[in-house]
């Protein structure tokens, strides 16, 4: 059975290829290299997907909904969330072949996400807002020295990858930093999710560890959620949880999640890459009916174990 994340990647995708080359590549070689890089991405779909925002969720009545500057909300929400209606994908590949050392390629992977943001208030009144988000992730590939056309994927292999930024249009909210700590000794601060990380250095978390996350946006009126995997079954299908972070009243927001261990797939023990998404929404996105949807997300990759 094909994994859902692979099917998601296989959908309609525009691919643009630019070659920065010290030696001329034939159209056939260029096409074959492009196809090889695309195949390598599909084979490592755990790296290139990200956990899309949950469709809906209940408002926690015990969570403060407004910062100190707010005294009244137009909407008192009961349930709210996104309905994804369309996803358009685009992949730009720039191949560098200077003739001295192995060829490399820079990949920009973009998704245009559109749909409807739904809000149902405590009187069962339904509100809706259109949304458009743009998601961007970067990666680099390298072709093994002395690679031949007969090698798997023509010798192309991913060497580094970034997290994903997800930004609405319009957008005013921002993420300044994310601080992760755990009883197991984790203490990491992320300030730029678009930074490339060597695949060997992707964040490693221990299975069953309780991770404390503190997100700084600078605006105490923001609403912050995290989306994280609850489990993955033997076919790779995943269940995701949406959790609201506690508003500390000073532009920081705190919460926790527990990491899950490896999974069995077709009788084989697997360790798929996980993604956690920090989801920032403006106050007016949820609590007013006359202001537009306004959001920013960071999705970053981690693995279980060393």
Query: Total helix count?
Result: 4
**Which range does the strand content fall in?**
over 45%
Largest sheet: 12 strands, mixed
Give the helix/strand class.
Answer: mainly beta
- Topology order in helix (H) and strand (E) letters: HEHHEEEEEEEEEEEEEEEEEHE
Sequence stretches where pLDDT stays below 50 over 5 or more residues: 1-12, 54-72
| Global geometry | globular
Radius of gyration (Å): 21 Å
- If you average the pLDDT, what whole number results? 81
Write a compact overview of the structure shown.
The protein is mainly beta.
What are the main properties of this structure?
single chain; 306 residues; mainly beta; twelve-stranded mixed β-sheet; five-stranded antiparallel β-sheet; 4 helices; 19 strands; 11% helix; globular; disordered N terminus
SSE blueprint:
Layout lengths: L3 H7 L2 E9 L5 H17 L1 H4 L8 E2 L18 E21 L6 E18 L4 E18 L12 E13 L8 E5 L5 E4 L6 E2 L5 E2 L4 E7 L6 E10 L5 E7 L1 E2 L4 E7 L4 E3 L2 E3 L3 E8 L1 H5 L7 E10 L2
Parallel strand pairs: 1-3, 10-19
Antiparallel strand pairs: 2-3, 3-4, 4-5, 5-6, 6-9, 6-19, 7-8, 7-11, 11-15, 12-13, 12-18, 14-15, 16-17, 18-19
Question: Would you write up a description of this structure?
Answer:
- The chain is 11% helix and 49% strand.
- It has 306 residues and is mainly beta.
- The longest helix is centred in the first third of the chain and has 17 residues.
- It contains 4 helices and 19 strands.
- The protein is globular and about 65 Å long.
- Strands 1, 2, 3, 4, 5, 6, 9, 10, 12, 13, 18 and 19 form a 12-stranded mixed beta sheet that branches. It has a 5-stranded antiparallel beta sheet with strand order 8-7-11-15-14, with no helix packed on it. A two-stranded antiparallel ribbon has the order 16-17.
- The N terminus is likely disordered.
- Strand 4 and strand 5 form a beta hairpin.
- The chain has one domain.
